[in-house]
Amino acid sequence: MLLNPRLLGLGIALTISVPVVTAQAQTVSKLTLDSFTNNKGSWSEVGSVWSDLAPNSHQLISEGEGIILFNAPSKKKPGADIISSEKFGDVELKLVYMMAEGSNSGLYLQGQYEIQLLDSWLEKSPKAGSNGGVYERWDDSKPDGQKGYQGYAPRQNVSKAPGVWQILEVGFEAPKFSASGEKIQNAKFRYIRLNGVTIHEDLELFGPTRGALAGGEVAEGPIRIQGDHGAVAIQSLEVKRLDLSSPEIKTINYSVFPGVFNELPSESSLKPANVGSVKSFDEFKTGITGSSLTKFEGTLDIKEAGNYTLDLEVPRGLGALVIGNNSSAVELKEGKVRVEKSLSTGTVPYTIWVSKPRDWTAQGFNLTANAEGMWPVIMSEPALAYNNSVDPIWVKTDETPVLRSFVELPNRSKLSHAVSVSSEYGTHFTYDLESNQLIRVWRGEFLDATPMWHSRGNGVSRPLGTTTELSLGTPLLLTNSFEISEEELKSIGYQVLGTGDIVFNAKTSNGGEMKDHIQLMSSGKGITRTIQLSGAGSYMIKVLPGSSLKKVSKTLYLIEDTGAYLEVLTDGVTPQLGSSEEGEGVFLPLNSNLSYVILF
Questions:
Q1: Neighbour-count burial for 555-581, b at 16+ CB within 10 Å, e otherwise
Q2: pTM of the full structure
């Protein structure tokens, strides 16, 4: 087992709010090809893009006209980097993109800091130059082998197949400069998520990466997309500015009242045991032992007008929050207390009540502020964790390649007889012994077993990589009209044949047998499934969710909205779209034998 960095979770119990008075302007830019300069002819806008996964094709196929940015370098039209006309500072960015086989591109924030875009589908050990990696800085004066430095590999490889849309989400904090132009704060990636998985967090950038635009680091700079290394398509690129200045607590005065308080008494009846002022909430101490109620008063400096959300939470206690001059009754509440309010520039009074009815409760409270176009700000947090947070427990493939556990489904139901199977290739799957369904496949690390193994545990394990959900656990056998068949299957165990290679056995209600052989491919591309069914009739099975089915070669199909390929290996079998109890999907007929591949 591998222990990872500590995570902190916050409970939510009850909410109060003040209606927002005015709407705040949106700060999102949706970039199109017209948003960029320096197109030498290889970039165009098309209607659709896909790949046929032919070996060594290194191309994407496009058709029609539309809004998808498509870069197809050729001898007549050599590729070139495109550079946005608009410049940005702090941003949250979302890029939906597609790579050709073996293709290479890059996304430069401010034209200076590159996040690599690469076909890394089959990589076992990602590097700084892999998909989602932060590219190296470069120094030609250093010896060979040492020229590249300060590159950062993704935590795990969660890249998808060529021809499948991938999602890159970035929180970027621009470098800061003094009035004289001196850099006083390095740039930072607050987070980088690839296909829903965090692969970088709080990553400081000490300077531009290799190939940066001339001119060096700046407070605001353009978005630059590399176009001279191969085919790449961009379905959408949204950039949200985060340039709203954060509010600050200016003054903090406090009064501490001893005793147990579950509701606010009349203030005239309260006698403080301790009063004073502090520069920050983190400096505050009650100065007494035992239970207490504390009143904080002061001013909040609003630097820019806007709609603000402030959240207060008292660990194992109660709280109340008032922003502005509010004469209405105030009540102590457990859990999260929220105030949403439109605030003008200037100072605003606040009052915070913090009740600690138990003398063993951790010191401090949580107070955060948020607004459209602003990074969330932590104004106060407890000195000690209060929710028994623990280091996550990751299951390592080489130690536990097969794990029985409970499994949570997207609809929040649980499977109690699930088997998760891993491989050294970074691909994994979960199978349900009750429904005989292939539940999900995923790419990346194997399992987080913290809920299962920490303390008493609840039996649940969770996939660590980017998942493709296949089934919600309804029975495998369906009729030709996609309804649940009267024929029932009962699991009679499974046999592990090798790494990522397992046969699940079942009996039918009329005395037949089923062997369900599932194998994670040694290439790392996906999963092969072969079902042998005896003594039963003709059925349909759902192999993938989705409402689209594009034939890209003789036996290969792309389910674009699911982000996976289906290859049918059984002669004469054709997939079809339909709708079952679980929703829309791709179905295959099952008679005595069926074999297919899912590439993801």
A1: bbbbbbebbbbbbbebeebebeeeebe
A2: 0.89
